[in-house]
Specification:
The protein is mainly α. It has eight helices and no strands.
């Protein structure tokens, strides 16, 4: 079966699913590029932090780095320099903003992945209804080969819907795992800095990012 036959026999539903796949692919590529070029903290960050902080060179050092961890540390340092005492909340706020940027498009991918099979099933139901209408009009005397052809054409949209949904959901879980790892890295870096700053509150946990618990997804 040629690809053109899929679109010809699948009808409007297959074209809509094609739009689903194009939109999902665009979001996935954009998110992967973001994670790829986001930048990471040096492996020896924990060892070097006390030294550069004591020498007053932390701000200059951070300007040469990239990534959400850097944004949190720079924001926390700026708040400490301005006299803010509750630095934990500052780190939480900045971390939540950075997490939302990382998760932009995740909700859209979830919607596409979850509704694609339903859309394919809708196309199948519509196709089956048409097939049985033909049987009724023929008075029950329908060629078995023609009936089988009508049924597989109806089932085609369900197959296309699953073919779109499965990779989208798998890649979405992969992206969520990447965001989880960066969230843990942000939390760790923020905690290390807060332990070194005198203005950090001692009675609150330095939990910079609450991932999957009340996090807001940006579409």
């Amino acid at each position: 079966m040629m690809l053109t036959d899929v679109f010809d026999k699948g009808g409007v539903v297959v074209w809509v699913l094609l739009g689903y796949s194009v939109l999902a692919l665009a979001i996935i590529l954009e998110r992967l590029m973001q994670f790829l070029f986001m930048g990471r903290m040096p492996a020896d960050f924990e060892q070097r932090l006390p030294e550069v902080l004591a020498s007053g060179e932390l701000g200059e050092w951070l300007t040469r780095l990239k990534g959400p961890e850097t944004v949190i540390l720079q924001g926390t340092l700026a708040a400490a320099a301005s006299g803010v005492r509750d630095l934990t909340r500052v780190a939480q706020r900045i971390g939540s903003q950075e997490l939302q940027r990382m998760e932009r498009g995740f909700r859209t991918l979830g919607i596409l992945g979850n509704t694609a099979p339903l859309l394919g099933l809708l196309g199948t139901i519509i196709g089956m209804i048409k097939a049985f209408m033909v049987i009724e009009q023929a008075g029950g005397r329908v060629d078995a080969q023609a009936l089988a052809g009508g049924i597989w054409e109806a089932m085609l949209t369900t197959g296309v819907g699953l073919a779109v949904a499965i990779p989208v959901l798998l890649i979405l879980h992969l992206l969520e795992g990447m965001a989880d790892r960066r969230a843990r890295s942000m939390r760790s870096c923020a905690s290390l800095l807060l332990e070194q700053l005198p203005h950090a509150c001692d009675n609150e946990e330095a939990d910079a990012i609450h991932h999957r618990e009340g996090s807001v997804y940006a579409v």
